[in-house]
Specification:
Glycosyltransferase, 622 residues, 2 strands
Amino acid sequence: MDMNRIRARIDGLTDELLRQQSWDGAWRMCFDTGTMTDSHLIILLRLLGRTDEHLIRLLAARIASKQEANGAWKVYPDESEGNLEATAEAYFALLYAGYYSEFDPRMVRAQQFILLRGGLSEARTLLTQVIFAAAGQAEWPRLLRIPLEAFFSDLGIGIDIFSLSGHSRVHLVPTLIMANNQFVRKTFNMPDLSSLFTGSSRVFSNDSTWISALNAFISSLPLASLLPANSKTALEQAERFMFERLEPNGTLLTYSTATMLMILALLSLGYSPVSPPVNRLLAGILTLICGDRPHLQVASSEVWDTAMIAYALREAGLPSQHAAMERAAAYLLEKQQDRVGDWAKRLPNTPPGGWGFSHVNTLYPDVDDSAAALRAIRPYVSETNGLKINWQRGLNWVLAMRNDDGGWPAFERNGQQLPASFFAFEGSEDISTDPSTVDITGRMLSFLGKELDMTISQQWLGDSVRWVLSQQTREGSWYGRWGIAYIHGTGAAVQGMIAVGVSTDHPAIKKGIKWLHEIQNEDGGWGESCLSDKEKRYIPLHASTPSQTAWALDALIAAHEKPTPALQKGVDALLLLLERPDWTYSYPTGAGLPGSVYVNYPSNNYIWPLLTLTSVLKKYGS
């Protein structure tokens, strides 16, 4: 390996990052999730009668630019033919924007694609169904007509709203308000999408699960006296639930998607489209538009990007006294949370102290961001400057978040698993609860081992390692929930276990490394399709991406005292990917909602390669 070339690339990445830092110390990079949110925003603005034509025109142009030759839209580049839900949403948004007619060739091709996929009735994602139902284009799914009293009454039927993940709750509550009210809002210029259904019915075909039958059964029983449908008390509690979870910028728990649903829910409760609460929510949504492109983020990633970039720069040799590093640390310290969120329901005696994903997140901290922030500010913590209290408070929070099974979740401890078929929406089983994940647990082990010198000699850490070992697949890989997917999980698992003292000769480590060797591409890199995340099995991308190549190399570097041919070939591939970026540079390697939401983190092409190349230089450079 050419160490001079590696050092030059590290210096180049460092210089690029220093130029991109904001004045307040943060790094702000677009959290790009494709066209879904852009389509939804156009639809919302038209439903509200807002006339921000400049924004609508920009969003429409971006959506149109993403259309495939066959008329479809995709949620990741190698998706077979296209995505029904993304195509239906884009089709509706472009027609509603008014810049295209249904007879435009691109719209005709989109309609043909939708019909070839079985029509709009075959849409499977919650957000797609809700948007089309609220706009009067489809019937409200029966499976969403769960009485609010089931969640917001002491006389409920045993469904605990807090057994769901936080992000599920804030999307579900406004949805249930609308569904129970059978809310529909139409405008005079709204397109008619009845032609997108293959038959006379406008019902979604997955609306025939046991929960639909349960809802019908409940409504037919004399329980009406105990569960009065849409009681004022339940509606008031549901409304209060939403308002209590607004962040300072006016978004519902920082999610633009949940905030859009809240606006529609308020309309169903009688709020005016120009009322102060609706105006505040819409203003919050607009704060999430990227600075470098007309794209609405699901949530912004400033805290994650800043913490991880600062850590990568530290590892690359930038001194903690550097002005950029000090600004980043100051920014992160300001973002440490002191408010008690829903996480405290399962940790009632733990003081707040974590960090969230977004710069406006004050209620919804998560383990991954908190560990990243703790790493980034650690060089500034001492007994004399008072920061040790902040740091210890954050450390206590992430340690308390450890689940009883030994792993770490993202947001809330010991989430209860709902029946897999409770909601028959695409990916619902992956987001309805918040279980331990291998990738977050692996990064926690790396943090505790590398930063705090903790090892498996401490029994509780040994239990965490045993949980990770229990998650290994027969082939030798591990699934990573928040990145794509088995390469991501395997890299985190191997690194984390070795960091806390698991031998590189351990059979599971050797099996994981063997699996990485087996899937290495001819060019020396690694690449995995987003389809792996949906299918829950490794599916190759047949190309290499910078972040996935870095994740695989991280595991190899941790496992090998000397560079191997496969490792050397991988480093050369990574350098080439960074020097000559192509379409793989923007391939979404972040996971959101399996099957429908994938994320292109621009920071992934800096953070992970920088950490990997630095590890190569430190371990093999002498």
